[in-house]
Amino acid sequence: MPCATLVAMTTLFDPLRLGEIGELATRIVMAPLTRNRSAPGNVPTPLMAEYYAQRADPATGAALIVSEATQVCPEGRGYRDAPGIHDAAQLAGWRRVTEAVHARGARIVAQLWHVGRISHFSLQPGGAPPVSSTSRAASRKAYTDEGLVPCSPPRALRDEEIAPIVARYRQGALNALEAGFDGVEVHGANGYLIDQFLRDSINDRVGSAYGGGIEARIRLLLEVMRAVAGAVGGGRAGLRISPANPLPGDAPDSQAQALFERALDELAPLGLAYVHVIEGQTGGPRDAWPFDYAALRRRFGGAWMVNNGYTREMAEAALGAGGADLVAFGRPFIANPDLAARFRAGGPLAAPDSKAYYTSGATPAAGYTDYPTLAAARGGAAAEAAGVRAGARADAS
After folding, report:
1. How far, rounded to the nearest angstrom, does the alpha carbon of residue 225 sit from its chain's CA centroid?
2. At what angle do helices 162-178 and 88-103 cross, to 10 degrees?
3. Burial call 173-204: b when 16+ CB within 10 Å, e when fewer
4. Where are the beta strands (DSSP E) in 53-205?
5. 125-136 burial: b if 16+ Cβ within 10 Å, else e
6. Contact residues for 241 (Cβ-Cβ < 8 A; gap 6+)
7. Whose CA is closest to 272, among 304, 294, 298?
8. What's the rounded mean pLDDT across residues 27-43?
9. Distance between CA 173 and CA 364 in Å, rounded?
10. DSSP 3-state of 394
């Protein structure tokens, strides 16, 4: 009998060509992480460039970095000290970041963001109410100069106001490439503006081209992705979705499976580089809501990026079974800038300081750029132990 052919399974450390974004040395992605370290004017800082560069070596960190969520316009702001990508100073700040990442050999895409109703009037131009698909306030909090406060009641957008917002996403994509990014990821997840139109638990529009049935609820998403892909090319564009992520006060769409399958069917002609799917509840249960992710993946021809609580073992299993092409790691990258090196060595993962997630404080580097690599931590521990032993010998002499 002829011998069976052995098929090598994909691993985290295999390379991948990701659309026009470029060659990736591994399948390890740093997920977008809001860290609130930008300067006044929502300008990325040199410290942010250092932070991303620390995590950008494909041999030790991420082969691809998805930037923290980045506002495409002043009205899209919902968190103080989160960066924007809509004026010259912001682009100059991001250019420092992309140059630092590229110098380490990694690729980076900008996550384009509009928070919609997840905001507060104090963060909006002129103190206006935030905008959304609805006039109902979110059961969440915005991060303001006064700390975390309940979101303000939004104003429901009129249909004729939506085209200018789509244009903001398009311009944000062009700005990202001007700032040196390799591509863009549209944030269509986690209850922000695009997701507010997708979910019938939020979208209560009546008599609107953007509310009602599935075709209407996916309209904003399709218009944004077509505009972005038309501006920078589908091969440089990705999309982040969270089909089964329950939010405070809001369930996933009641027809989530049909809605997202229809959306991906409509997006297929764009030739997107990837879809980035959050499986389950962000930072919570992966089975928080029933959803067939495999059925969704079968409808998409580009790379499939998975996210939410993945360990190395889970990631290897998903890649080996063909359930993913890329795995995005979020919180592990906060305290482990050398995450890939730790995976390779089977080393321990450091725990992040959750109190420093979203604040720059008096020392912006604390809990941000001061996490040591495993090699440095072990070297420091060895040096400290050597010092103790030398001290003990001196005491005994």
Report:
1. 16
2. 40
3. bebbbebbbbbbbbbbbbbbbbbbbbbbbbbe
4. 64-71, 107-113, 131-132, 141-144, 147-150, 155-156, 183-187
5. eeeebbbbbbeb
6. 188, 189, 260, 275, 276, 277, 278
7. 304
8. 97
9. 28
10. helix
CB 29 within 8 A of CB 65: yes
The pairing of strands 303-307 and 274-278 is parallel
Give how far Cα 391 sits from Cα of 131, 186, 386, 387, 388, Å.
Answer: 65, 57, 8, 6, 5
H runs (alpha helix) in 273-373: 293-297, 312-320, 331-335, 339-345
Rounded Cα distance between 100 and 233, Å, is 24
The residues that bridge with 241 in the sheet, in sequence order, are 277
For the entire predicted model, the pTM comes to 0.93
User: Which residues carry out catalysis?
Assistant: 192
Tokens of 379: 């070297």
Q: Give the Cα separation of 58 and 386 in Å (integer).
A: 32
Distance CA 260, CA 249 (A): 21
The CA distance from 347 to 357, in Å, is 23
Note the residue count of the chain: 397
**Angular region, 127: left φ>0, alpha ψ -120 to 50, beta rest:** left
Residue range 230-249: mean pLDDT, rounded: 97
**Can you spell out the DSSP letters for 204-257?**
--SS-TTSSSHHHHTHHHHHHHHHHHHHH-GGGEEEEE-TT--BTTBPPPTTHH
In this structure, what token pair is assigned to residue 27?
């399948």
* pLDDT tens digits for range 188-212: 999 999 999 999 999 999 999 999 9
Per-residue confidence (pLDDT) for residue 383, from 0 to 100: 43
Distance of CA 353 to the CA centre of its chain: 20
Q: Which domains does the chain have, with CATH numbers?
A: 16-371 (3.20.20.70)
**CA 319 – CA 328 distance, rounded (Å):** 12
CA-only gyration radius of the chain, Å:
22
For residue 138, the SS3 value is coil
CA 308 to chain centre: 11
pLDDT confidence bin for 59, thresholds 50/70/90: very high
DSSP state of 105: T
